[in-house]
Amino acid sequence: MLIINPIEYPRHREWNAKVFSMPKIPRGDIGQSAILREILKAITEKVPYSTKMKFSGSNSHATLEHLCTWLRPVGLIYKEDRVWKISEEGRKFLESEDDLYLMAVFCANIRFTSELLVELETPLTSLELLNIANKDYKLNWDTKAEVGSRLTWVRQFGLVSFNDFKNTYYLTDEGKKFIENISYVKPEDIEVIGDITSNEVEVPVSSWAENLIQIEPEEPIIRKSSVGYIPGSIPEICETFDGYIQLIYSTVNKEAFLNYSQETYNIAVSSANAFATTMTNINFLERTSRNAYQATDLAKNWLINKSPLDLIYCLHVNVLFIFELLEELEKESLSFKELAVIAKVSYGFETERIDEIRKRINIMQLALLVQEETPGKYCLTRRGKNVLGKVVTQQRQNFTLVNGPLKEVDIVKEDLTVNDYLTELRLASKESSNPIRFEKAIAATLSILGFNVIRHGGSGKTDVLIQSPSIPKYSFSVTVDAKSTQSGSVTEGLINFDTLKDHRKIHGANFIAVIGFSFQGERLIKRAIEHKVALIDIEALETLIKLHNEIPLQVNSYKKIFSQRGKVSVSVLEEDRREIRRSGILLQAIMGCLIEESLDPVTEGLLHDKDIYRTLRSNKDFDSPPLLIEISEMLQFLSSPLIGSIGRSKEGYYALGTLADAKNKFNFYAKSCSTNQVPGKLDF
C-alpha cells in the first residue's frame, strides 16, 4: 500500500460548500473502505450502472448507479454527459489504498468531520458531540445518526477509540498525528451566507410555468396535502425527475418503470408505484393504458430547463401549502414544527406533518425561495418575495373570535384570530420545558368559549380554573391540569389522580379535566374513568373551538363535555348545535317568506303563523318540518320591539325590511355585547 504524503491531501472546501452527510456505503466483512474501492473499480471497469453490487457480508441490493449517486457529494466521483467518472482524489485513493488519505478527503468535503476529531482531544460522549454540532456548528441535527456515522468511519481507521466504562470517545495517538496534517473550522470562523438573490428583480421562472398558475381550470382542482413519495434525496430531486421523464418520454410499460426504479434506486414495487402516483398527481405522468406510462406535455416542458423553481410552480397547482408556505414566512421566520401546526390549523391538513414541511422547505431552498435565517428558522429570500408578488394563494381558514378573551388571561398580541390561539395551543402542548406557556394557551383558548378563566399554577393549586358565568345555582366549574410533553403523548405515569382530586376539593369545582396533545394507554383511560376525569386532547379541543365559532353555544352546553369520563367526544354537543342551526334556518325562512309576500295583491304581505307553517312544511332545508309552536315563537322574537324585523297587526305578521336590514341590526347588538376590556395577549 502506498502512503500518500500529507502535503498532497486535498484542499478543504469552504464550510458553506461542504456537504452535511457521510457517504452511505454498505457495511460488509471487508469494511467500508474496501467496499468503496470496489465501487471505484467498477466505475473504471465500465460495469453497467444497473448492476446490483454484491459485497461479502452485506445484504445490500443497491445498483452501481445508486451507489454513485450517494458517493458524488464527497468529491470522489462526478458525472459528465451521463457518465460516471472518478475524480483525481478518487483515483489517488484507489491506487494508494491509503485509508488516511480517504479520511482527509472526507475532512475536506464533509462538515463536522475534521472538527469532530479536534473536539475529541477531550473525551466526549456521542450526545455531547451532537450538542457541539448543533450549538457551535449550527448543524441542526435531530438525532445522533450523523455523529454516529462519522464515529464509525474514524474508528475503522484507528483514529478514535471508545471507553466502555465512561461511554466516551477519544483520539488515539494515530488520531492526534492525523489532525496535525488537516485543516478544520472553528465555530467563530463560520460565515453566514446572505441572500444570493438579493439583487434579483424578475423571477427566473419559465413562461409556461407562470401561465400554469394563472389559467383557471374548467373544474376546481382538489389540492392534496402530501407532495408524495420521491425516491432519492431531495438535493437530487431534479435529476430524479429528469431520469424518470426521459424514461417515459415515449410510452413505456409498467414493468420497465418498475425495473428502472428497482435498479436505479433499489426501491420496492410499492415505492415505485407510489412515485408513479406522485408524478400523476402533479400531471407529469399519464397512463395511456392499464400498464403503459407516458410523459405529459407539462413534464416535457419541465425537462427543457429542469428547474427546481418551475417544479415548485407545478407542485403549487396540485398540492396544498406551497406558495402559502411562503406567505407565512413573509410574516415571520418559522420552524418546521411551527409551519406544520399552521398547515394543520389553517390550511386543511388532517395532521401535523413535519416530514411534508421539511420536503417543501428543502425543495424551496434548491429554488432559492427560502433560506435558514437562524438554526431551525426559515425566512424568505428576495426571490421568494418576488414570487409572492405574482402568485395567487389560498386564503387561510381564519375564524374570528366570537367572545373576546378576559383580562385574567395573560395576552400580548393584538387582533388575534382563532387560528392564532389554536396554533399556539398546539405548539405549547409539546414544549415540555415551558409548562407555563401551555397553561396560558389553554386559559386563553377556553376563554373563547365564554368561560371565566383564572390561571393558577404552582404547588397545591390547579393549573387553570374555569367557571361558567351564571348564578351559583346554575353555574359549574372545572379544574384543568395542563400536560405538555415533547413527544406529544401523555401517559399514565404523568398524571397523579389523587392530586387532581385534591385540586377539585380546594377550588370547590364540579369537574376535573386534563388537557394534553394526545393520551396513550388503555390503563390511563380506565383510571381516568374510575376517577371521573375528562381527558381532552388537542384535536378535540381544536374541533370544539372551531365548532363554537361556527355555531356558538351557551357556556352551560359545554357541561356535557366536562362531565364525561375518560377521553371526551365533542359529538355530545350535536343536539344543541342542531337546535341552534335549526333556529337560524327558521329565522331566515320566515323572513324570506314574509318578504316574498310583501308585494302579493291578495295577502298584501300579511300572514298568520299557520299560513307560514303551510309554506314551510315542505321546505327541504329542515331535517323535519318546523312545528307551529316553533314558528309562533320565532315570530314573537322577530316582532319584539328590540328586534323589530317584522310587524304585527290583527290581520297577521308582515316584513319591516330585508334580510340585510335584520343582519345589520343583529350585528349592532353583537357589537354592543362585546367587552370593552383590553384585548388579551398570548406570549407567542
UniProtKB/TrEMBL annotation:
The UniProt entry, under InterPro entries, shows: WH-like_DNA-bd_sf
User: Which Gene3D superfamilies does the entry mention?
Assistant: Winged helix-like DNA-binding domain superfamily/Winged helix DNA-binding domain
Q: What is this protein called?
A: Restriction endonuclease type IV Mrr domain-containing protein
